[in-house]
Amino acid sequence: MIIKRNYIFQDWQSNHHNAKGRAIMAFFRCASIIERNILLKVLFFWYLLLYKFIIGWIFNIEISSKVNIGKGLKLVYGHGSVINGTANIGENCTLRHLTTIGCKILEDGSSGPSPVIGNNVDIGVNATIIGDIKIGDHVIIGAGSVVTKDVQSHCVIGGNPAVILKMIYKYPLTEYGEHDTLAPAT
User: Fold this and answer.
1) What's the CATH code, domain 2-167?
2) Checking DSSP bridges between strand 82-83 and strand 100-102, what pairing results, if any?
């Protein structure tokens, strides 16, 4: 629980200058803590209902309280995004609006596995990531990309279907001492 609580503060820092992103991530982290503890789930079932209403109807974003999201998720206009409850998202990822991270519906009508997204992944506007796939660390996914196959680490992908556009080997540091995945490799 301490780890998840600390994630709230790291998400808060990642979403500086973005009140909506901060609010969504704070609501999500609290719902996630409640979802993972049966006693809290019984005592705070009302919060989970409130979470679904506020996140879905007011903020117009669907993030299941069951999804595993690492610390430091940055939401850049998360409006209209959907994240399936069985997805896994690594640390320090960036998510833009109209992004879908979900599963395929299998022939028997059940839901298949969802993507596993690595650390420091930057997901562009209107990207769709579906299926039982793994996306490596330090990946930039271009706007409008449809990702249905595994993606190796340290690359830029784009298109429908998504293909590797270039490889990235080094990341310069930003003024905050973090690696800037959007800067050109040197």
Assistant:
1) 2.160.10.10
2) parallel
Positive/negative CA dihedral, 112, 21, 44, 7? positive
pLDDT of residue 154: 93
**Below-70 pLDDT ranges, the chain:** 1-6, 8-9, 170-186
**pLDDT at position 173, please?**
54
Sign of the alpha-carbon dihedral angle for 157, 162, 115, 103: positive
- Count, residues in the chain: 186
List the chain domain ranges: 2-167
CB < 8 Å & 24+ apart, contacts of 32-35: 32/4, 32/65, 32/66, 32/67, 32/69, 33/1, 33/4, 33/5, 34/65, 35/65, 35/66
Q: Cβ atoms within 10 A of the Cβ of 19, count?
A: 9
d(CA 106, CA 98): 24
